[in-house]
Amino acid sequence: MAQIFLNYRREGGAYAAALLDELLSDRFGEDQVFRAARSIPPGSDYSESILAAVAECEVLLVIVDSGWLEKFESEASDLPAERDWVQREIEEGFKCERIIVPVLLSGVKRLSEKSLPGAMAPVARLQYLRFDYRNIRQDVGFMAEQLVRVCPEIGAFEIAASVEKPD
Fold first, then answer.
1. 98, 58 Cβ separation under 8 angstroms
2. Does residue 167 form part of some domain?
């Protein structure tokens, strides 16, 4: 199963998630990065697939776009947490004791505990990484180094992915 799970909102973070998927897959191998839109086979139960991927990953990257916080506020009263997959995936990551790393996209300010729903408040205390459209290669390089730092097992895939296959 994939070592890196990409958590994102389709509305604002989908393009960043797709780009991170591509760049991290180039570095570690496509089978080491889980992005629901690409990784779940047709006909599979997406809820089972997603929860299994969170439970089996090493690192969950939470992609925070400019509208990420507002989505919690606007849906707080009318969307239960079990229907908000971003929240559900993060809560499952905490439950499974996964490494959770917020990835703040261009222009997003540091998260505050007061701005997040109760179960999500701990995300604000986690050390974050940045992913800025002006520094894509540099930020992904740094991100990959940090992922290997916090989860050395991922580094084994980096080496395997970079080895040329014989003809």
1. yes
2. no
